[in-house]
Protein: dihydrofolate reductase
Amino acid sequence: MRKTIFKFMSFRMLSFNLIVAVCENFGIGINGNLPWRIRSELKYFSRTTKRTSDPSKHNAVVMGRKTYFGVPEGKRPLPDRLNIVLSTTLQENELPKGVLLCRNLEAAMKALEDKNEVENIWIVGGSGVYEEAMASTRCHRLYITKIHEKFECDTFFPAIPDSFREVAPDSDTPLGLQEENGIKFEYKVLEKQ
Ligand SMILES: NC(=O)c1ccc[n+]([C@@H]2O[C@H](COP(=O)([O-])OP(=O)(O)OC[C@H]3O[C@@H](n4cnc5c(N)ncnc54)[C@H](OP(=O)(O)O)[C@@H]3O)[C@@H](O)[C@H]2O)c1
Structure:
């Protein structure tokens, strides 16, 4: 009798979080860069997107083409994280080795399904990627730095769907109003209910 061999494939329905810094007039960027310079906020971004509970794992950061190339040349790809760039026009040879090019967000999720070494997936912008991410059933939490000032911007954060409600931030998040170089800001976390 012939034996039938069943090959069980591991399948994970992946979810992700989103992280953004947004100013009072809902701006997130200008001329391909951030409209402000807040070092402690950049450190918060780095710390949060790198954090894993399993030290043998790392996280993935998913971003649009303009966000990737907006990162200063010497600082990209973002270190210690799998960088995934979404683009319909880029070719693989235009990105450094180790950076993953995906043609859309779902393709990125599919590519991550069998990457068991990736613990958390962070959506890090820009505008259209945030909009698609927040509308997705995969979206769990929004990590939003609210900057209490208006800045001149050409790129904006989309409207947050009503299904998100504020929850307590992670234990290492500085609570309450922060200030750097006279700019006041606050770390918030919203979760899909
Ligand atoms: N404040 C913050 O937290 C924050 C965070 C991130 C970015 N930013 C700022 O935002 C600006 C960049 O954002 P942006 O909205 O202009 O551009 P972006 O989303 O970073 O890049 C847009 C490009 O990404 C590709 N793309 C986006 N969504 C895609 C999808 N679903 N599938 C395939 N390709 C996709 C397309 O590239 P192709 O044209 O090649 O197809 C599109 O033209 C910069 O100023 C940056 O500094 C701020």
Notes: The helical segments are 39-50, 65-70, 105-113, 127-135.
